[in-house]
From TrEMBL:
PANTHER family from the UniProt entry: DUF503 DOMAIN-CONTAINING PROTEIN (PTHR36441:SF1), HYPOTHETICAL CYTOSOLIC PROTEIN (PTHR36441)
Protein known as: DUF503 domain-containing protein
Species classification: Bacteria, Bacillati, Bacillota, Bacilli, Bacillales
Length: 92
């Protein structure tokens, strides 16, 4: 099973693209190092305080893929600099 999640987020304290990218770089690196998840910023790259990330994972079953992706989403939620506003899941 392939599961993807499109995540829209707000980065409240970012006052420049440099600050935004430093927050995203930290989040993306931790997710890629800890979990079997591919992650990328796919929209709103030139907006200071908003971003859209897509997380994708592959698992042997729906439950395994969903558990892995939930771990990645929980990691995003653990950062105080960023707030997840909308999450859309898709199964393939």
């Amino acid at each position: 099973m392939i599961l993807s999640a499109s995540v829209e987020c707000i980065i409240y304290d970012a006052q420049s693209l440099k600050e935004k990218r430093s927050v995203l770089k930290k989040i993306i690196a931790r997710i890629q190092n800890r979990y079997n998840i591919a992650i990328a910023e796919v929209d709103q790259q030139n907006v200071w305080q908003r971003t859209k990330l897509v997380l994708v994972t592959v698992g042997s079953s729906r439950t395994v893929a969903e558990q892995e992706l939930q771990k990645g989403l929980a990691l995003i939620d653990s950062f105080p600099e960023i707030e997840r506003t909308e999450t859309v899941f898709e199964w393939f």
